[in-house]
Amino acid sequence: MLSWAVVLGLLARQILAIPTISAKGSKLFTSDGAQFYIKGLAYQPTPNDPLANTNQCQLDVALMQTLGTNAIRVYHVDASLDHDGCMSAFANAGIYVWLDLDTFSTYILQNTSPTPQWTKSMFQAYADVMDTFQKYDNVAGFFVGNEMLTTGASSIAAPYVKAAAADMKAYRDKQGYRDIPIGYSAADIPALRPNLQNYLACGSDAADAVDFYSLNAYEWCGDSSYDESGYDILEKNASNYNIPIFFSETGCIVPEPRLFADQAAILGPEMDHTWSGAIIYEWVETTNNYGLISYGPPSGAEPTVSVQPEIGGYSVGGAPTPLNPGFTNLKNQWATLSPTGVSENAYTPSNTPPACPSYTSGYWEVSGNVALPTIGAAAVTGPTGSAGSGSGSSGTGSGYGSASQSSGSGSAKSTASHNGAARPTHAIMHSAGMAAVEGWFGRTENSNPALFWFVGIACAILGPAIAL
């Protein structure tokens, strides 16, 4: 006989159920065997944790569905808060979450020091986020970093990025969590192509490689083309890649209006056999002018949520209103693009890991497949399987190849792509730590009353048949 606790758990699981995402070879698949292509949005309307305000998530989800969204990317969360309401809202809409594990104080390469680091305290902070979010079936993947490397000199941080991924994969497996893909989001820096991409996937031990690689690219601007934008080069570099690759940010804003014509290439026959989709930067309008929506009621309408604070003259909460023609242009692009790919059962991976790049002064300052500065197995598992209590060593910039520890920190982000397109302000903000915004404002925690209502009704119906 089933206990009430078991029944309640099963019912809640049914309500929140959504096929999970996994990586196999160079592709992403849902647990029902379909290849998964990302139609995503960067979603960070507040600096600390947008997934702790259920009311706001529900408002945003409703409009995202009209756009054709199936994924969001969130850069910063607070592992101590309640995320059930938001994660349920997104799951019920068929929207997955790609989540960064790091936060303002745990970047592998900070602007305050040229020395990369990966320490036990950083590992613990990453593990806290993983512990909190691994239970949600609509978590598609975790990033261990965003745009840490931006120059050839900053390539000395690459082994630390790879070590972070290796340690977090080991922790995931030791804890018995499902195989949530763990990877990295890279700035598209011509000087680092394709060395960083190849390095993070190279080596004979898959446990030391990232599960996916993603790129923040703003090269396709206005009425460009596959060849003119340089996407043909990106495709060439990825054509034999052995792990999934996708655009973790894209959406050039110069010149206006935003046409999003690159989506037809990414999700079409030119690239859909290699790339797994794209995440558009970004959902809400701020001072950088990348937003697809603005918050607050349309002119003359009554607000549907309480008045929210403003940052730089922009509201950070409220009713989302589309900003056109960008919103409609993206909607129209996605509406025509539905790649089917291959079924998981019919797919046999054949690509092998790339060779580890050799040291090249000023371009790639890591000598091949160097030993990774992981924190050690004891720190990953702890005495009872919990994170961070072991005696593993801390990685703090021992030097790779013949790299100088005085090389650049990577904090000075490029303000233009190789073809002159403006890069978003966040590229500077993330790398600089965003210390000035850490204490902006608190989050509103809300429960999901619909969930409890449904469970209550179901229990009333099933109760007579269940022994207590």
UniProtKB/TrEMBL annotation:
Function: Splits internally a 1,3-beta-glucan molecule and transfers the newly generated reducing end (the donor) to the non-reducing end of another 1,3-beta-glucan molecule (the acceptor) forming a 1,3-beta linkage, resulting in the elongation of 1,3-beta-glucan chains in the cell wall.
Gene3D superfamilies: Glycosidases
Any one GO biological process: fungal-type cell wall organization
Protein name according to UniProt: 1,3-beta-glucanosyltransferase
GO CC terms: plasma membrane; side of membrane
Source organism per UniProt: Neohortaea acidophila
Record-level Gene Ontology MF annotations: 1,3-beta-glucanosyltransferase activity
Source species, domain of life: Eukaryota
Region (Disordered): 383-421
Membrane topology: Lipid-anchor; GPI-anchor
